[in-house]
Design a protein that fits this description.
The structure is a homodimer of 350-residue chains. With 350 residues, chain A is an alpha+beta fold. Chain A has two domains: 146 residues, 60s Ribosomal Protein L30, Chain: A; 187 residues, Phosphoribosyl-aminoimidazole Synthetase, Chain A, domain 2 (Alpha-Beta Complex), CATH 3.90.650. In chain A, 31% of the residues lie in helices and 25% in strands. The first copy, chain A, has an eight-stranded mixed β-sheet with strand order 8-10-7-11-9-12-13-14, with helices on both faces. Chain A has a four-stranded mixed β-sheet with strand order 3-6-4-5. In chain A, helix 2 runs parallel beside helix 3, helix 4 crosses helix 5 and helix 4 crosses helix 8.
């Protein structure tokens, strides 16, 4: 639907694996001085000196994590990198390298794989990370992508999930729910397209939501911002699955409870408007939607003034004692319990 | 066929992702002091001090890389780790951590996944590496495994593919062709089993070949052995694809030619006997077979006496000037050209 179908189609089988690797890696450049040996040997060699090495990995499967009928391959490549870099940033680290493995069925021509890698390359260039290895193989069905990101940080700067203390303030970056609403718009347009392939939808009024879904950006800027504000996060996690399950993860790891406030959750106006149109509660979109790749972290109460009113940061609540559980105060002042699948109003009386 | 079908079957859907992760990771222990943070945060944290960090990754797809009708899941888990550790050892490095991502269709019950991880855990314990992360997801078809291995080495010890010099001797560890012949035996037994599911084959006379295929061991011992012999490899690669394509990779990366001798290629007697039975030339099995996970490396001529006659090491040839190409002298004294797909006697007159 959003994909250009007129690109040339070179069957991958005409190249062989080594020519394929050469084709897809030749335009990648090295950005980070810690990359000693990149693609082309048995393994990559990276020198992180006295800093800690941080590693994260994700596996993306066609039909489970993405739908190529509305996800252009270049965007998929870009997003696959973001998903992993986000995990490095969620440790308060600096991302330095990635490896990318792909399995492709023979329905994909070379040009499709090049599109995918163009997105990966754009992500590498924008975020100054180096592609240092990977694996390419055939699949019996569909497209699979496995990305591993490597990063670094001085030991004292690393923010684990487990460092939050009772009384800490809960902060979230950017705004939430947009990626989920972008998915709703795209799913609806896909259904329209299946009925009428000639339709030319005008999606401009959903551009922010769609961009959040198709081309998310990981928060590489937050580490520097927090340094500038002289704030050290006590715990941090990225919001990949929705605010509700992420804050529960962080609370459990830190052995504390949490209380957040519905009317403090940052929602972009376009997201709010789209929620209304789709008859979806915008708090539900933020709590359960996921894929926003914002960062959720805790700070000491004494840092309140440093963070208050910052356009990229919203203070949405605080950590409580463990026995208080995981709660949200609604806009109407009612306290409800958060669950890993989101919130459930009927469970509050338990 | 070789799998026990009587294990209990708990549908994975009854657990959810987090309980699944907890179930499969609870029996893993930490071996390496460089593992600071393992599973459970956004990313793992590893401290490699002043040494280089080495990273390698592989993707294994059901129906492409393995056939569960004769590959027990525990063996698959073990082998998936070996494939990656082998790449770290091929840099003359020490493997320290792995991450494992899996995608599984709902035909696999929890007990199957536990079997897979039992094999991964055995590999971690035997090779003293730590499982520090991964991803678990559903697949629309079959089983996929993505493993990333991380290792370390002092800079001066790392052996790249590109370090071989003209006149260097070519050395291979262990013996070759066994894994390929094991595959032939298993494929034949699978065909027999499909015709007669009651057949109880006696595979004991193929036990070495089958073990090479189903439970290969990566050469973690070679780094220490070479130190003991006071030999520094100038270049190194692991034999995952067959001797022929590996020595061509190494020669090309080093910008040299090579000449090996057919009658120096180490073949186990059982492998030779199985080759005869299957009417496969044993040199073909060694050159093209792959999956032996032995190491191929080059050393200075002055180290000849240190290596000569060692039971784990075979000197099979030497590096020549680049323009001489990639050649093998057959048992009959004829020189033939090696190709990446193996050797082809008809091409020698070109």
């Amino acid at each position: 639907m959003l994909e250009d179908k007129n690109i040339p189609k070179t069957p991958i089988a005409t190249l062989g694996e080594f020519a394929l690797i050469e084709t897809i890696t030749k335009d990648f450049t090295i950005h980070d001085p810690s990359t000693h040996i990149g693609i082309g040997d048995d393994a990559a060699v990276i020198q992180h000196g006295d800093e800690e090495t941080i590693v994260s990995t994700d596996l993306l499967i066609e039909g489970v994590h993405f739908d190529l009928s509305y996800m252009p391959l270049k965007h998929l490549g870009y997003k696959a990198v973001m998903v992993n870099l986000s995990d490095i940033y969620a440790m308060n680290g600096t991302a330095t390298q990635i490896t990318v493995s792909i399995a492709v069925s023979n329905r994909f021509p070379l040009e499709a794989i090049e599109e995918l890698y163009a997105g990966i390359r754009l992500a590498c260039n924008n975020y100054k990370v180096d592609l240092v290895g990977g694996d390419t193989t055939s699949s019996t069905k569909g497209l699979m992508l496995s990305v591993t990101a490597i990063g670094k940080a001085p030991k004292e700067e690393i923010a684990l999930r487990s460092g939050a203390k009772e009384g800490n303030l809960v902060v979230v970056t950017g705004d939430l729910g947009g990626a989920y609403m972008g998915l709703q718009v795209l799913e609806r347009e896909k259904a329209v397209f299946q009925v009428n392939p000639q339709s030319q939808p005008d999606l401009s009024e959903y551009s922010y939501c769609i961009e959040r879904q198709l081309k998310p950006e990981a928060r590489t800027d937050i580490k520097a911002l927090l340094k500038e504000l002289d704030v050290k996060p006590s715990a941090m996690i990225d919001v990949s699955d929705g605010l509700s399950s992420e804050i529960i993860h962080l609370s459990k790891a830190s052995k504390v409870g949490c209380q957040i406030y519905e009317d403090k959750i940052p929602i972009d106006p376009e997201v709010g408007k789209t929620c209304e149109e789709f008859n979806i509660n915008n708090t539900t979109a933020a709590l359960n939607g996921g894929e926003d790749y914002e960062l959720l972290f805790t700070i000491d109460q004494s840092d309140f003034e440093k963070v208050k009113g910052h356009p990229h940061l919203s203070i949405i609540g605080h950590m409580t004692d463990e026995s208080s559980g995981y709660n949200m105060v609604t806009g109407l002042g009612q306290q409800i319990e958060l669950t890993a699948q989101g919130w459930n109003g009927t469970q509050t009386e338990e």
